[in-house]
Design goal:
This protein has 17 helices and no strands. By secondary structure, it is mainly alpha-helical. Helix 3 packs antiparallel against helix 16, helix 11 packs parallel to helix 16 and helix 12 runs parallel beside helix 14.
Amino acid sequence: MARSPAVSFVLACVFLDALGIGLIIPVLPRLIGTLAPSADMQATWYGAIMVSYGLMQFFSAPAIGALSDRIGRRPVLLTGILGLAIMMLVPAFSQSLTLILLSRILGGAMSSNIVVAQAYIADVTAIEQRTAAFGRIGAIFGIAFILGPALGGMLGETDPRLPFLVAGIICGLNFLYGFFVLPESLTSPATEPFTLRRSNPFSSLSALSREKLVLPILLIITLCTLSQSLMQCTWALYTEFRYGWTPKTIGFSIFVLGAAITVTQGWILPRLSRALDPQPLVLLGLTAGAAALIGIGLSTTGEALLALVALFSIMGVVGPTLQSIISRTGSPTTQGVRLGAASSLNSFTGAVSPVLGTPLLFFTSKSAPGDLAAGVPYFLGALLVIIAIAVTLARPLPGKNS
């Protein structure tokens, strides 16, 4: 796909925003610890900040997408980038945990800009190329999240506030670049007035679910992203409890997963999407994901896990493929709200997964090294993916040309 300067900017926007967010991941708990009066309060504030950030993403994604349908992608995208820059700078200078919490709440709303980037790409990309285009967005996001925490950790060794300052500067430069480079992609904005009543996640998801074609897709997205979130939220403690992995080994395994997902979405998916219809492509990704999760649950030693992590990454073809279907089954003036509704499911499952996954680690921590009960968190993830496979088989997905 030949990329115009506008598409190049949007991809750069995704990279820089994700890099800015990734920069602060290693140092946020430490910064909160310097301001909280006790370890218990540190944990409380950290939990509140993380939960509020995810909830704001959930509530904001459809509204921001719908707003971009109404007034255009350019102003919403640039406003979000500028707002994210400002919100990043607050923790760099503030001594107030309340202000930092507020900045992360507003930052969660601004980080929903990924939806507008997806809608922009959908505006300027041919229907048959959207799966590959959405895959490239995911790949670039993955690269930034590999580099961001590593760079943030190095900067944070000097001062835990420094990564926030650098992230704010990166977002600010991103805004200036976009202000001069980014043209509008939406040629015919929506004529319906923007209202929060129609643009909140519940209303937008309800509207999408009434479409006979889209309802099973939403269910597959929910099951797939919930299984992925379960892995993400339990991986560090699971591998420590069961295999005695050190932070260095855990970090390397996360790097392998991120790199494998990047390769899957950025290089493998474009080629598979040209050769396969969505139905077999999604089934391939789900089958690989289920097999990997079962394998992880059955593994009594950690030697095979890196190979299983690479196998799990193939499930990365599912999200962009389903997003492409949601995009092409709607009108050009509803891309933002439709993609925003689908994106809100990711935020929702990210908030729910710790509630489900963390208690299951009790089985891991209390089981003997060779006891299969230790793999319960990953058996649950596999069960969710198997249900998604059943839904896909029961309600076949539309072909590329339908």
